[in-house]
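Aim 2 progress update. The chain analyzed this quarter is reproduced below.
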Amino acid sequence: MYRTVSGSIPALAVTSLLALPAATIAQVQDSNSENARPSITLDNPGDPNFNQLLGINDDGVIVGYFGDGTVVPNNGYVLVPKNHYAVENFTHLPSGDVATQTQAIGINHRRFPDIVGFYTDGATTFTHGFLDHHGVQSAIDDPAGAAPNVVELDLHTHSARKFIEIAPAGFPGAVATQASDITDHDEVCGFWTDGNNNNHGFVGRLGEQWSTFDVTIDGVKATSTSPFGCNNDGKIVGSFTDSKGAVHGFVYHHGRFRQFDATGSSQTPAFNVAGTLINGVNDEGDIVGFYSDGTRVNGFVRYAGEF
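Predicted structure tokens:
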């Protein structure tokens, strides 16, 4: 399971059911974009043609991966900008087995940060979540998960480890749900998919009511909205598809949606990726993601001081 046009989406690990009614997020329509200053492109030289930056902690340490998964395998990494790369491939496997693909998708704010992601094992080609804690890797699979896609993991390390399912039944008209991120206050963001294969955002605290929303700018509602990250300050980031089919990043804060397009981004697909997708936001407001320049897929960072 490799990420392309839909974005690299961290997921909340799941086992029990929440079926909560949908609500509507407060919205202030705003046509201002977030593009007053350029974003910074950061690509691992392991594959300068395909990089995705997926998570960033409050110290500015970034996780992501290079390789499209076909021409070049997915290789996870940790990046201290702008060019200090460390390998983060899953290696804790039985003798004789190797991970054929690894994506590092999330990193927390501890002194020695935990890293989460997923990998594909060579023996079964199944996908597994993993946790790297103090340099010790362990696989984490939802016991209710169905192979070969066992679990995608975004570990909430501030509470006892458990799996919680956020089911489509909680969203009228939904055929699928994706939890993308969780804050220190158990606020979850993600999206649900309708019968036309369009996404709609949701946000809310575990055990409480969900708010559902669509990016709306200048009174025009997005065709599809996919939140990928949220922080403790109430920012939500992700991507949306406009009425013309173009893909843009978005930042939601204080009831206001703003469009963001990485410097050099193009709607011409590269490796099935078009436009800009924002995947991560830290509590400082720094964002990371990736974009197509029409030929390559590039990782980018945009620092909060530039908003």
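Residues 81 and 211 are 35 Å apart (CA to CA). The first strand starts at residue 16 and ends at 18. These observations will guide the mutagenesis experiments scheduled for the next reporting period.
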